[in-house]
Amino acid sequence: MARITESLRKSPGWMLLPLRLFLGFTFTFAGLQKLANPGFFNASNPASIEAQIRAYQLRSPIHLLLGIASHAPVVFGLIIALGELAVGVGVLLGVFTRLAALGGIMISFMLFLAVSFHSHPYYIGSDIVFVFAWTPLLIFGDGQVASLEANVKRKLGIIAPLGTTVGIDFGTITRVCGHHEAGRCRANGRAICQVASCPVLNGFIELGQPRSQRAATPVYDPERRRFLVRAGTVGVAGGTAVVLGTLSAGIGRILYQAPKALSDSLASSTSSTQDPPPTTSPATTAAPGASAPATTSAPTTGGPPPKGTAVGPATAVPVGQVASFTDPASGEPAYVLHPSTAKFVAFSAICPHAGCTVQYAGSDRFVCPCHGSAFNALTGAVLNGPAATGLTPIPIAEGSNGQLYVDG
User: Are residues 163 and 34 in contact, defined by beta-carbon separation less than 8 angstroms?
Assistant: First the structure.
């Protein structure tokens, strides 16, 4: 116990270790989770990075920057995922810990401005908490505690454990010694400075050098060793991140099951359920992830189609299941649920609390992954906050041609 107390007194690294492990694991997990989820990079998925950027643009104070990112959402999402992974691995291994902490602050602050800026009260949004949680590691680093970089330096003699005596190269001594004057020692009769006869050093000992060689002159090139150590530890950390990211992405793509998207089946279904167009102009079909054009052809059975825009076939949403689509009125991601025969309900996928994209969690619930708000999938009503209002309903109807139509 006394030894632990002494270690804590000598280095803040021990006191910061729990915080460092939490932040490192959280950011590593967040990066791996994004890489393992192909839907994060799939524009037709309502929880994709593209859909999230579009939603955040509506309320974020950095909407101009998000508008730039929206032109290359996959690249932006990949940068965020790899950045989180690099920060997490660096902090966990103790490699450039201060630099990793600075990266964590930048990512957290960007997420605060993009996602949780309008959270009320402010402390409900976790991103601003992460910003301040990173600051102790930015100030103190890892304190050479459980640090790969520090351990390698100790092995090579560049640094020593806390409380030990370390060797200093003779050139440094001559620069700081009060007796040194133009290469001669005033304390030794103005004799030429030498390691063996120096009354200050009384015999220079390089760290880890046998006592029989204590008069041997200098040592190593410390700058070169520091460079090699840092390059090596960065290589280890980078290799670890690459292996984790590759495994995560591979396993995620093997296990991933993409949610149904109405837009994916719209083109094929319209050709089979509708009569040929009355004119010779080419038919317009919807690209995956885009809103479908309004249907003007006559339905296969009696009665005109409902007003609005076709978003997909009703058969693509079996009873008790959910499908995603893009609301043609707003361009935002949305969900349609088929709770019972001949009944469909649709809601915006944007959480009214902070603009995050909700996800269907089963048991007739939509859940916001940002702050935990839950909504009734049948009515859109709030089940638990912090959201104060429910999901925005979208009028939807099934046409006699088997298509689902929404206003827009």
Answer: no
| 290 and 249 together in one domain | no
DSSP per-residue string spanning 200-234: TTSS---TT--GGGTT------HHHHHHHHHHHHH
Asked, for residue 106, whether it belongs to a domain, the answer is yes
Note the pLDDT tens digit of each residue in 30-59: 999 888 888 788 877 767 788 788 777 777
Sign of the dihedral defined by the CA atoms of residues 108, 112, 116, 122, in that order: positive
pLDDT at 156: 67
On whether residue 173 sits in a domain, the answer given is no
Using an 8 Å Cβ cutoff, are 88 and 25 in contact?
A: yes
Domain that holds residue 310: 262-276+286-350+392-406
Amino acid at the residue 86: A
Long-range contacts of 290-293 (CB under 8 A, 24+ apart): 290/263, 290/326, 291/263, 291/325, 291/326, 291/327, 291/328, 291/331, 291/408, 292/263, 292/266, 292/328
What's the number of domains the chain is made of? 2
Residue 310 backbone phi and psi in degrees, to 5: -75, 130
At 315 the three-state DSSP class reads helix
**Helix H or strand E encompassing 259:** none
